[in-house]
């Protein structure tokens, strides 16, 4: 990372007017509750699933501040899920790329889901991610992307249970909530480590890498968080995968 400080970028467009301008904004963007989606992981046919992975998550507002003319940014509105949540860039098995030429075939339902969690679908990002990384994951395309979506959701929200393990609600993670409520403000790497520990455990503050990119005026935007995972991601929750991972 070029600097130990970066800007939480913001990208707003009025849905009522149907057009607008890209601009950095300060202040609070209302948190949009993520509707719970039951994701069933295809099982029984899984062999050799990659157990050392990187979950690459974008702060999409910053990406759009740097690349406003891309289709995914031109069509983004202030009340879209991607405006206040970390979105999926990819799920990357470590030290392996382009493992086969298996074609990408996804159900229409999964494509609809990816449009929310992975805005880059509009630019064909899912094809690139499958060919470069997904073919090394050890599953079919449907399972690969369903797993990546589930992990992305778990990074943004946490389930709350009663003492007898009954689900009583879903709340934003501290790191997602802070980013959504502090758009247009600068954040240091130390602050992000603190938010990560608050979200995923005190011993896990050094299990991610932060990616920043400079804009035309020299502004250092926080564009991505890459989270290191160890274990079978088709079976384990994000928290356990982070707990198992080494520091980086």
Short description:
The chain has 248 residues and is an alpha+beta fold. The chain is 29% helix and 21% strand.
Q: Could you characterize what this model shows?
A:
The protein is α+β, with helices and mostly antiparallel strands and 248 residues long. 29% of the residues lie in helices and 21% in strands. It has 8 helices and 8 strands. The strands form 3 sheets. The chain has a 4-stranded antiparallel sheet with strand order 3-2-8-7. The chain starts with a strand and ends with a helix.
Trace the largest sheet across and list its strands: 3-2-8-7
Biggest sheet descriptor = 4 strands, antiparallel
pLDDT < 50 runs, ≥5 residues:
11-46
Strand content: 15-25%
How large, in whole angstroms, is the Cα Rg?
A: 18 Å
Q: Globular, elongated, flat, extended or rod-shaped: what is the shape?
A: globular
The ordered H/E elements are EEHHEHHHEEHEHEEH
Helix content: 25-40%
Which class do the helix and strand fractions yield?
A: alpha+beta
Terminal Cα span: 14 Å
């Amino acid at each position: 990372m070029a600097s130990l400080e970066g800007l939480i970028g913001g990208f707003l467009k009025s849905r009522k007017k149907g057009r607008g301008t890209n601009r950095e904004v300060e202040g609070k963007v209302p948190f949009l509750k993520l509707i719970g989606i039951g994701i069933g992981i295809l099982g029984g046919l899984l062999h050799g699933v990659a157990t050392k992975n990187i979950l690459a998550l974008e702060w999409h507002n910053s990406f759009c501040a740097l690349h406003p003319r891309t289709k995914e940014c031109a069509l983004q509105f202030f009340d879209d899920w991607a405006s206040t949540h970390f979105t999926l860039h990819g799920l990357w098995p470590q030290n392996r790329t382009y493992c086969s030429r298996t074609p990408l075939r996804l159900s229409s339902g999964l494509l609809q889901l990816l449009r929310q969690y992975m805005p880059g679908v509009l630019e064909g990002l899912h094809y690139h991610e499958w060919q470069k990384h997904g073919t090394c994951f050890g599953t079919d395309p449907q399972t690969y992307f369903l797993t990546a979506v589930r992990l992305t959701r778990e990074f943004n929200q946490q389930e709350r249970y009663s003492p007898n393990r009954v689900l009583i609600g879903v709340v934003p993670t501290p790191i997602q909530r802070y980013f959504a409520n502090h758009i247009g403000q600068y954040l240091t790497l130390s602050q992000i480590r603190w938010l990560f520990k608050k979200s995923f455990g005190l011993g896990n503050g050094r299990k991610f890498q932060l990616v920043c990119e400079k804009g035309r005026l020299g502004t250092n935007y926080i564009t991505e968080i890459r989270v290191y995972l160890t274990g079978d991601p088709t079976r384990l929750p994000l928290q356990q995968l982070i707990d198992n991972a080494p520091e980086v």
